[in-house]
Design a protein that fits this description.
Blueprint lengths: L28 E7 L3 H12 L4 E5 L5 H6 L1 H17 L5 H12 L9 H11 L6 H9 L2 E5 L1 E6 L2 E5 L6 E11 L3 E3 L7 H4 L4 H6 L6 E5 L3 H12 L3 E5 L11 H13 L3 E3 L4 E7 L2 E6 L4 E4 L1 E4 L3 E3 L34 E3 L10 H20 L2 H7 L15 E4 L4 E6 L2 H6 L4 E7 L17 E7 L5 E8 L6 H9 L4 H4 L12 H16 L1 E3 L11 H5 L8 H9 L1 E3 L1
Parallel strand pairs: 1-2, 1-6, 2-3, 6-16, 8-9, 8-14, 9-10
Antiparallel strand pairs: 4-5, 5-6, 7-15, 11-12, 12-13, 17-18, 18-21, 19-20, 20-21, 22-23
Helix pairs in contact: 1-11, 3-5, 3-9
The protein binds flavin-adenine dinucleotide and nicotinamide-adenine-dinucleotide.
The site of flavin-adenine dinucleotide (FAD) has 38 residues, from α1, β2, α2, α3 and β4.
């Protein structure tokens, strides 16, 4: 059975509700069984059910999955009020008001939120860990659900174990979708298990702020939680084996986040790890690889995740391995399982590890199941014109946001990716907090940076990174441009409204124009050479000197390598 590492800090949360138990299932044969009721599982189930198929979700814990109960939703419910407070503290009027409130309360430091109010808001966003309303909504869409632990016991056969009675029920379906998500990867550290530790579950659901929180791992979980607890007044020590925090994002973006974390007092230790842990008098004593010692109130393990497939009988299916992710094809069908009846979506297939990509895969999976049920799958594949049954068209446009302060949002390819893929590309970067920008109207002292990766020759946008407060909502325009195959010249005509953070797009287009001469031999219409687009005219003097007429020439001009 899968190991449940549940919080001792929230004994009030019941992870195994006593509703919708397997014994209440009246039907044994289904069109589709979805194992896991997280965002990916639910999206697939809803699409199949609204398409006319009978669908059963088997959910081992709380419907809504990790995302709704222990990850995205509660973590963002903690981060968003902190972001609002930080914005309020950096514009006139609200800044003074916050300061006088803090003085009246007698509280010092950066903490501009009411702790109890914050935790209550987080609990409300997590629906107080009550999945009843979610189950009712699924029922309204024609999806049946049962609470139990699913084991795959043969082709189309699923055994559901009841956590409470220990009994089990066998159900069958034409298609089985594994959407069991992921669980934290816990490194083998001497004394860790005996000492006890926080996983992301405890970090996002805690009702207390530890005096000193040690965080092991500086990826997305580690940096987001360092942001939360650092801003709530904990002393935070953030430890990573790597040379820098956030190794998945470009170096300069990670540096901006690291600088900001340090400003809130976070102690970042790089190129080290914890060798030994002991709990004494309630405190955590950690010995680091460089032989230094730390004493903290809690230790959060944020060292990555792995597919949650252990203990669910996968070895009974030829081609699958327990505890490993399930490899899938472009339609989300398990590649090693013959006869195309088993699918894997979301974190379970190891492709993307985000909610939005899991839900996107879910729709592709459901479209495939529906097309097979209607007998149109082969026709759609052969025609190649129904792209909804394949993920290949988005493979190079995966977006993600790390909700630190500043936020980092990225989509598509980095320059490193393009080198690996033998694509000729260049980076274009702009400072979005400097003079000539209007980000001061968003907040005083705004710090921000943006980068595009552009294909040399065609000028097509391949990748984008935005750093700064509020950039999460800027990203999608770049995703649209990448998926649509747009060039920076075409984006010249996408005029951002004034004064908004979207003006960063204009800065990027201007910078592309300024750098154009270095990348391309620009030839105007009817073979006339376009002047004034090269670095000599604009680049050295700064991007803002590029004249609009020259930009028009660039946009209208054709390019030869
Ligand atoms: C702290 C944190 C913050 C995050 N923030 C974000 C964010 O802001 N944005 C974002 O896009 N992503 C975020 N993620 C990632 C996101 O949570 C996952 O990518 C997402 O939850 C995956 O969805 P899923 O449906 O594949 O799996 P899950 O949400 O994990 O759901 C899987 C479900 O399957 C159930 N299950 C497992 N095994 C069985 C079984 N044998 N039988 C029956 N049921 C079973 C589980 O109980 C669970 O309910 C975050 C992750 C963490 C840890
Ligand atoms: N906003 C979001 O979209 C969001 C937020 C949180 C998590 N997530 C998802 O959840 C997944 C898991 O996040 P995560 O932060 O746990 O994993 P991660 O892979 O992003 O980062 C883990 C980090 O821990 C480091 N590490 C590993 N072992 C270590 C050790 N023994 N000592 C010190 N450092 C060690 C790794 O080098 C890595 O940098 C991510 O892939 C992400 O997609 C998404």
């Amino acid at each position: 059975m899968c190991e449940i590492t549940m919080s001792t800090t929230r004994p009030d949360i019941d992870v195994h509700p006593k509703t919708h138990l397997p014994s209440s299932i009246t039907q044994t044969k289904w069109n589709v069984i979805v194992i896991g009721g997280g965002p990916a599982g639910q999206a697939a189930a809803i699409k199949c059910a609204t398409g006319g198929l009978s669908v059963l979700i088997v959910e081992s814990e709380l419907t809504g999955g990790e995302c709704q109960n222990w990850a995205c939703v509660p973590s963002k419910a903690l981060l968003r009020p902190l972001e609002v407070a930080a914005d309020a503290a950096s514009v006139g009027g609200t800044r003074e008001k916050l300061r006088s409130c803090a003085e009246a309360r007698g509280t010092a430091g950066n903490v501009n939120v009411d702790l109890q109010g914050l935790f209550e808001y987080r609990d409300k966003c997590a629906v107080n860990w009550n999945d009843g309303p979610g189950i009712a909504a699924l029922g309204g869409l024609g999806v049946s659900i049962t609470h139990g632990f699913a084991l795959v016991v043969g082709k189309g056969k699923v055994q559901i174990k009841d956590w409470h009675s220990g009994g089990s029920v066998l159900v069958e379906a034409v298609a089985v979708v594994v959407a069991t998500g992921s669980e934290p990867f816990i490194p083998d550290i001497e004394g860790l298990r005996e000492s006890g530790y926080w996983t992301p579950r405890e970090a996002v659901s805690a009702n207390e702020v530890p005096d000193h929180l040690i965080i092991l791992g500086a990826g997305l979980v580690g940096t987001e939680m360092a942001t939360v607890y650092g801003q709530l007044g904990s002393r935070v020590t953030l430890i990573t084996r790597q040379k820098r925090i956030l190794p998945k994002v470009v170096e300069y973006a990670a540096e901006l986040v690291a600088n900001s974390l340090r400003q809130t007092g976070v102690d970042i230790r790089v190129e080290t790890h914890v060798r030994k842990v002991k709990r004494r008098n309630g405190l955590v004593e950690a010995e680091l690889a460089d032989s230094s010692d730390l004493t903290g109130s809690e230790i959060l393990i944020a060292t990555g995740r792995r597919a949650r497939t252990a203990g669910m009988g996968l070895t009974t299916v030829k081609g699958l391995t327990e505890g490993a992710h399930i490899d899938v094809d472009e339609s989300m069908c398990a590649v090693t399982v013959p006869e195309g009846w088993l699918y894997a979506i979301g974190d379970t297939n190891g492709l993307a590890w985000t909610t939005h990509m899991g839900m996107y895969q879910a729709v592709i999976c459901a479209n495939t199941i529906l097309a097979k049920a209607r007998g149109s799958y082969q026709h759609q594949l052969d025609n190649g014109n129904d792209l909804r049954i394949s993920r290949r068209h988005s493979a190079t446009a995966t977006p993600q946001t790390c909700f630190t302060d500043p936020q980092v949002s990225w989509v598509g390819l980095s320059l490193k990716d393009t080198k690996r893929m033998n694509i000729n590309a260049r980076e274009v970067s702009v400072d979005t907090g400097g003079p000539g920008t209007h980000s001061y109207l968003h907040s005083e002292g705004y710090t921000g940076w943006a980068q595009w990766v552009i294909e040399t020759g065609t000028g097509r946008l391949l990748g984008a990174v935005f750093v700064g407060r509020g950039v999460a909502n800027l990203l999608h325009a770049s995703s649209v441009a990448i998926v649509g195959g747009l060039t920076w010249r075409q984006l010249f005509h996408a005029v951002p409204s004034f004064p908004t953070l979207s003006e960063v797009y204009q800065l990027l287009v201007e910078k592309c124009a300024a750098m154009g001469g270095r990348w391309f031999r620009l030839v105007g219409r009817r073979g006339l050479r376009v002047s004034g687009c090269g670095r000599s005219d604009a680049g050295i003097a700064g991007v803002h000197c590029v004249k609009i007429e020259q930009l028009h020439c660039c946009v209208g001009g054709s390019v030869s390598r």
